[in-house]
Amino acid sequence: MDRRGFLRGAGGLALGAALAGCGPARATGGPVTVEIWHGQTDTGKKVLDALVADFHRTHPGIRIDLGGGVLADAMLQKITAALASGSFPDIAYVFGSDLASVARSPSVVDVTGLVDAGPGFWAPAREAVTVNGRVRAVPALLDSLAVVCNKELFANAGLPLPAAGWTWADFVGTARKLTDAGSGTFGTAWPATGDEDTVWRLWPMIWDLGGDVIGAGGRGIGFADQGVRVLEVVRDLAAAHAVYLDPKTGSEQMYQAFEAGHIGMVATGPWQLPDITDAGIDYAVVPLPSFSGRPVTISGPDTWTLFDNGEERVAAAQTFLSWLADPAQDVRWDDGAGSLPLSRRTQQLPAWQEKTAETPGLPVFVDALENARVRPVHPAYPQVSQALGTAIVAVLLGRATPADALRDCAAAANAALIIPR
């Protein structure tokens, strides 16, 4: 999840004050309407609604329309169709992994200047919105991946909580010991839909082994060797019957099972902590395991992508996103929607420090940003992800060996990568 900001230094603050009190207005005196497809549900939508209400009070020349659109998981298809028809919103919430595909459209606004004026965003956030050296979106949400453990289940199994520096072999062994068929308890869980939710948990493992998503030259995958070893971890979890497989998009059942006390540990992001807390689970957060002992994780920044519906609406949309990315608003979004702060400036605010003090494990996710990497902003990434997702599910279900699954993955992914784009 990632958002990006603006306004650095005294000059930036003066500009921010000017933007806060005005903004584009129609020549007729009526407000400019900015249509946003936000993709949020529940808590995220509630926080966004409140922020928009505050924006309206200070920007009478702009009206934000949060109607329309679809859930974020289906945004790529919705936006692709909208661009083809020529009728699209001013702003859409686009996953970072989908940005390269969307950014090929000439209707996507270059926001390099807007983001360059930001408060100093975490490196993964900036990297995730940059396509071929141009900033094509404003960061919307920032996360990292760590392991959340159910402390009660660990205690019942007589196991100590994992510590930083643990290995993937430790993870498999711990999952096996936490599993209890009699009580319907699994050591861990994994999405089994084959989509990006299934895939992104594997990239830190591949990076740790020295691989990459796309190889040098961009004509083939960069994990032909490392992928087999990673899939062997997946195989070992499945062979031990220590992994709950969620067949539902969005991992809803997996998280429900964890929050009901039936899963010992799950690799997830900070967005899940509010629900885990509400469920009354006594939990701890620990860094991801590794093969090498070197800390590495993945950040999955999402974006606010702007589309050109004319100069007036573009200016209004930029004013809103500048306001939204400011630490004063960012900290409210982070607190309510489960995001990490987009910049150190937000992290240093008293409100975020209070949030950190009252939320066990949250600092682990923030600290992980120092060693986080992001998926490549490449137009063929969705095809690479789909190929790896198919391989993961095949191994989880025992339908293919790691070597065979990776061979099929490489064939499909490499075919996508050699297509000129």
UniProtKB/TrEMBL annotation:
This is ABC transporter substrate-binding protein. Keywords: Signal, Transport. One of its GO terms (cellular component) is ATP-binding cassette (ABC) transporter complex, substrate-binding subunit-containing. One of its GO terms (biological process) is maltose transport. Pfam families: SBP_bac_1 (PF01547). The keyword Nucleotide-binding does not apply. One of its GO terms (molecular function) is maltose binding. Belongs to the bacterial solute-binding protein 1 family. Gene3D superfamilies: Periplasmic binding protein-like II.
